[in-house]
Amino acid sequence: MSVARSVRVRTPGKINVSLKVGPLRPDGYHSVASVYLAVSLFEEVTATELPADEIRLTLSDPEGRLPEAGIPLDGDNLAARAARAVASRAGRDRAGVHLHITKRVPVAGGMGGGSADAAAALVACNELWNAGLGPADLADLAAGLGADVPFALLGGAAAGLGVGDRLTPVPAPQQLHWVLVPAAYGLSTPQVYAAVDRLRDGADVAEPMEADPTVLAALADGNTAALAGVLGNDLQAAALELAPGLRSVLEAGIRLGALAGMVSGSGPTLAFLAAGEAAASALAAALRAEGYDALAAYGPAEGAVVLPAAETTAPQTYRK
């Protein structure tokens, strides 16, 4: 029995510690000015060679958080599109791969889990096929896949302009501790942006030209208390309108000791900033005691990393 080579890559989820959203553009998008922070909820993608021109996807869900509808495992999955992009750029159009995705980032939760899968697939397939693509090539392919994919490659902390894909790494030397509370449902990002436009009701909104300097300063200084006072998300009001039950969770987090709380990206995951690691652990335990699914995490976390992976004899069958 032949042994199939495999490559395993880990990529982080993210939160937006600041998110400014501009008006609706003629192309249907919104310009943003965001400060991204990669956090220690990691997706893993294991890429294993297949002998034929086939991209096969499977999932495992160790945390038991996949929605009932599941995740599409066909060619529309962002990880499959990433594999095709690497094959095309490298001139390996008939290359085959089995991508197994281990999900740990909440699905449709505003934390970029699907983008992290795509970033991991880019790196894994590049390594698996010895494609020879450099960081600039991978970043270019990532930008073509989605606004959050380049940051999943990069990790750390970064300011994002345009639709979030024009990234500038920013200093964040101090480890920050968070408690993340995912919801049992997702929110559609296009619906959240549409709600933003409706709530603004034609108000004159300026194009965001730079990331919030007070947020950048607090990150650079490692000043947790200062950061708590300047967290902001222009999508939060829309997310709360679409999912009003999130308000009670935000109130609970503050009551139980969080320095600040906010909707992460387009939601519905909530991010609570804690004073330190012990405070985050205590807050997560207190929220779980009240019936919430709460996860302690830290950031910044590193971007895409190739992990040790044992060789496999054939693609396995995984629990969905």
Outline the structure in words.
- By secondary structure, the chain is an alpha+beta fold.
- It has two domains: 6-169 and 302-307, Ribosomal Protein S5, domain 2 (2-Layer Sandwich); 176-299, GHMP kinase, C-terminal domain (Alpha-Beta Plaits).
- It is 32% helix and 27% strand.
- It contains ten helices and twelve strands.
- The chain has helices spanning 78-89, 113-128, 135-145, 149-154, 189-200, 213-221, 224-228, 236-242, 246-255, 277-289; strands at residues 6-24, 30-50, 55-60, 96-102, 157-161, 166-169, 176-181, 232-233, 260-263, 270-274, 295-299, 305-307.
- Strands 1, 2, 3, 4, 5, 6, 8 and 12 form an eight-stranded mixed β-sheet that branches. Strands 9-10-7-11 form a four-stranded antiparallel β-sheet.
- Helix 2 (113-128) packs antiparallel against helix 3.
- The model is unreliable at 311-320 (pLDDT under 50).
- It comes from Arthrobacter zhaoxinii.
Topology, element by element:
Elements: E1 6-24, E2 30-50, E3 55-60, H1 78-89, E4 96-102, H2 113-128, H3 135-145, H4 149-154, E5 157-161, E6 166-169, E7 176-181, H5 189-200, H6 213-221, H7 224-228, E8 232-233, H8 236-242, H9 246-255, E9 260-263, E10 270-274, H10 277-289, E11 295-299, E12 305-307
Parallel strand pairs: 1-8, 3-4
Antiparallel strand pairs: 1-2, 1-12, 2-4, 2-5, 5-6, 7-10, 7-11, 9-10
Helix pairs in contact: 1-2, 1-3, 2-3, 5-8
